[in-house]
Amino acid sequence: MGTTRVCSEVSGSSKSLGSPLTVSTSLTETVNGFHEFKISGYSLAKGVGVGKYVTSDTFMVGGYSWSIYFYPDGKSPEDNSAYVSLFIALASEGADVRALFELTLVDQSGNGKHKVHSHFGRELESGPYTLKYRGSMWGYKRFFRRSSLESSDYLKDNSLLVRCRVGVVKSRTEGPRNYNIPVPVSNLGQQLGNLLESGKGCDVTFEVDGETFAAHKLVLATRSPVFRAQLFGPLRDRNTERIVIEDMESPIFKVLLHFIYWDELPDMQELMGGVDSQSASTLVAQHLLAAADRYALERLKAICESKLCEGIATKTVATTLALAEQHHCFQLKGVCLKFVALPENLKAVMQTDGFDYLKKSCPSLLTELLEYVARLGEHSVVASGHRKEMFADGCDANGRRVKQRLH
């Protein structure tokens, strides 16, 4: 992270009167981020047409979204498809975003002879580049002569590998800090957890799958609107001292109760009896997601979604997709659909028991899945060029900077 410091002084007649000198610092630095973009099936991309492209997923750097655009037949008609073009685009709303860029075409032979275009570590006459709005781009119309590329070590197994570095320029002013009083880290969760473990003051008992759990009504009502209605609402249960929980296993309720008091999950390996496997962890997260939604514990629900997203696999994704639909987890649902729709995954997923469950419990999802597969096909390499008209060329004389708008 590069930094530039500029000191400013407040002085004058006050200094002659013995007033202290005050100092502030302007700190300008780059917030750096990296993305790797693999372009598979290069030979199939050739011939797609001048000005047509394939694009990476968006990635975040410095609070903005970015994307890499690769033009197999070049971006400009005057080059007659003799070159491939490569650009970085601002993919989110922003005005006058200043940044440094680096594009690297990786030598896949292992010899390390990468093709690198970088602004980092060298002086720029006019400073960092400025991108004016969403769709503004920086890059090279003549990034590499295509005939040379196809006989080089950059192309391996019909694939290219591009690494991108973006450094968003940020500035802030720091004043003097003449004192520092340390503030203890909050231990509220630990205090409430100790209260649960001590059993003192418990006024409600839950019976779950043959086990009993003691708790405090006020804590439960504070953390969960469902418990609040059940324990203190106008339609509360007649017996609020002993409540039977149906359709939930006792280990899951124990984790739920632990989270309500501690605001974090317990040691999951201990819960699973020392079994350290992704499938076991996914199964627990699936059950816990349903419990979190049942009691409107949104943070726990988000944690479960995150864990299920990280552990997506062929054997479990169909069940996770069904849960995401049933419990309104739209981000998780999108990730699952994207995973299942990939050609290398679809057939294997359809052969799992989870897919049979998905067909029975959420038949409408099959239609969405088919639509997603169709959309994926539309955005394949050949179809990706249909939006050519959105980009008007705005390169400078050297083809290094382009500013344009995405609609």
TrEMBL record:
Record keywords, A-Z: Ubl conjugation pathway
GTP-binding is among the record's keywords: no
Ranges where the MATH domain occurs: 32-166
SUPFAM superfamilies reported for this sequence: POZ domain (SSF54695), TRAF domain-like (SSF49599)
Transmembrane segments: none
Record domain BTB: where: 202-269
GO biological process: cellular response to salt stress; cellular response to water deprivation; protein ubiquitination
Pathway where this protein functions: Protein modification; protein ubiquitination
Role played: May act as a substrate-specific adapter of an E3 ubiquitin-protein ligase complex (CUL3-RBX1-BTB) which mediates the ubiquitination and subsequent proteasomal degradation of target proteins.
PANTHER family the record matches: BTB/POZ AND MATH DOMAIN-CONTAINING PROTEIN 1, BTB_POZ AND MATH DOMAIN-CONTAINING PROTEIN 1
Family: Belongs to the Tdpoz family.
Protein name: BTB domain-containing protein
Organism: Eutrema salsugineum (Saltwater cress)
